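Field: COMPLEX_INPUT
Field: COMPONENT_COUNT = two
Field: RESIDUE_TOTAL = 285
Field: MODE = joint
Values follow.
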Amino acid sequence: MAQSRHAVEKEQSTKITALVVDDNRINRTIHRRLLSNLGIENEVVGSGKEAVDAHCSGKKFDLILMDMEMPIMNGIEATRKLREMGNRSMIAGVSSRSMEEDIQEFIEAGLDDYQEKPLTMSKLISLIRKISLNG
Amino acid sequence: MDVVSQLQRQFIDYSASLHREGFVDDQFTQLQKLQDENSPDFVVEVASLFFEDCEKLINNMARALEQQQGVDFKQVDASVHQLKGSSSSIGAMRVKNVCINFRSFCEAQNREGCLRCLQQVTHEYSLLKSKLQTLFRLEQQLLAAGGSIK
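Field: COMPLEX_OUTPUT
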């Protein structure tokens, strides 16, 4: 029986866990919905500091969707700190920033991928595929 | 044409007009695709969050621009940046485009330009809110008559 592309993706993603890091509640709501539609268990936090705290508390996620601009601790700083602490999640930067130097700094902080906002289902699927390929 | 078909036609035509007139872009369509039987009110929920955010941010911008002692353009820009982000996420194209201009005026520290943009963004937000509320009403009427939006 032919499976839709979505259904195949859902099958591959059901064992993946994700953390949404974004100070904007609309983005958190949308990103959670995208992840849930793919059957991905997910949690949300509102700042880079909360993402670091989640790591320190022992929580592990296969995928972290990291916004760039956030109060208290931004995505660049949070990514850097997480990598320094040995976090090996796939960290995907998700931002509306268009300045190349900002994006470059974000990538150099330790991102595995970067997607421009708004995050869509096809962008998320490309991230999931990377996780599946890397095992 | 039966009632359900009529309501369906109305919903589709109204939806198309929102796209044609630039009120919403493809991102709004993406949100509609995320709505299903597990989350039947998803678009209304996201829109409600957006309306709350808009009103709060527009008030913040107005207060900041009213300051006689000197406008903190960084503060105004921070609010505009947030509104641009939210409007982009929901697919509110006209609101987003005003925000893009608005940011240029913030960068130039041009108070008059900012005030004009504030007026425009308030106007575009009001229009969009009214249009989306009409769309959601049509959707409810269609669902109540036994139709579907898919």
